[in-house]
# Entry
Amino acid sequence: MSWIYLVFAGLFEVVWASAMKLSAGFTQIFWTGTTVVGMILSFVMLSLSLKDLPLSVAYPIWTGIGAVGSIIVGALIFQDKFSPLTWLFVGLLVVGLIGIKLTTSH
# Structure
């Protein structure tokens, strides 16, 4: 169950980061509220995952899901442009996250 909490924590990280962009400097009330709720849910899910997972595993995976997810949202929703080399490094991030998961005993 801890891994499920961790995945949701990472997904809510993407939600709040994307909502913060849409909040236009916290001037749009709906997106500002979405940012705050996303942050709270992300931290709650992370804290639940930390009951069973070591910090050294949970934290990098949480931030990695948030980073990769935000890059994908940036490209798909905000039309951010990335070079093929950037996508290679995003792929390496994903490989690193999978490697952490596969090599941990939890």
The mean pLDDT is 96. The two ends are 11 Å apart (CA to CA). The chain has one domain: 2-103.
